[in-house]
Design brief:
The chain is of the alpha+beta class. It contains two helices and two strands, in the order ααββ.
């Protein structure tokens, strides 16, 4: 075991005046600051990813009479969702 654990620290190096409440307050403040920094970094990262994703996205325009597929999930009780069709062909 370390010597300072066995024999305790000298009086001039021992921390005095630190209570449980002081420790918990410091822990709470440190945790709050860490979460705030993490949220800032995640927000910046999400905005950066969104920007790069949107560079390649183009709006699609459909005319009347075009055939399109749209998402229309059906839930049939007898079949697994894996075998059900989730897209339906639509003609306007």
């Amino acid at each position: 075991m370390p010597i300072d654990v066995l024999l305790d620290l000298p009086p001039e190096q021992a921390k005095t005046g630190v209570t449980v409440h002081d420790y918990l307050d410091k822990l709470q403040n440190d945790s709050t600051e860490a979460y705030r920094l993490a949220r800032e970094k995640l927000r910046a990262s999400a905005e950066r990813r969104k920007h790069h994703y949107n560079l390649k996205v183009r709006a699609e325009r459909f005319k009347a009479g075009d055939f399109v597929y749209y998402y229309y999930p059906r839930h049939l009780g007898s079949k697994s969702a894996k075998w059900q069709r989730a897209y339906t062909r639509l003609s306007e």
